[in-house]
Amino acid sequence: MLRFLFGLLLGAVVGVGGTAYFFSTGGGDYLLASSPRVLHLEEDLRRVGQERELMTKKLEEITALVEKMTGNFTDLERRFQTLEGTIHKPVPEGTSEGGAKETTESPS
Q1: Do residues 38 and 31 touch, judged by C-beta distance below 8 A?
Q2: pLDDT value at position 108?
């Protein structure tokens, strides 16, 4: 009976030591890498990485488009202000539309 307990205790200690050595040297990586759950997570990670790259490209395209639209809007605003300035230009004193008619009618 004593031999049995000694063998059981020795087997447990060697088993724990061997298992710790197996996982610490990288042998357990194969067991983890071949796990269906780990394979599924790796595939999800790759897919999410591709989606992230696609979203980054779309964001860059949209940013460029917004910058272009901002430039166009600024140009349009400048043109509008120029047109508005020419339409509402104050008439200089001393000359008026009525005064211009008087000068053309006076010499007759």
Answers
A1: no
A2: 46
* Separation between Cα atoms, residue 75 and residue 69, nearest integer Å: 10
d(CA 67, CA 73): 10
Q: Which two tokens stand for residue 16?
A: 């724990």
Note the pLDDT tens digit of each residue in 77-98.
999 999 988 887 766 666 655 5
- The CA distance from 58 to 51, in Å, is 10
Indicate the pLDDT class of residue 102, thresholds 50, 70 and 90.
very low
Burial 37-62 (b: 16+ CB within 10 A, else e): eeeeeeeeeeeeeeeeeeeeeeeeee
3-state helix, strand, coil in the chain (%, to 5): 85, 0, 15
CA distance 79 to 95: 28
d(CA 34, CA 42): 11
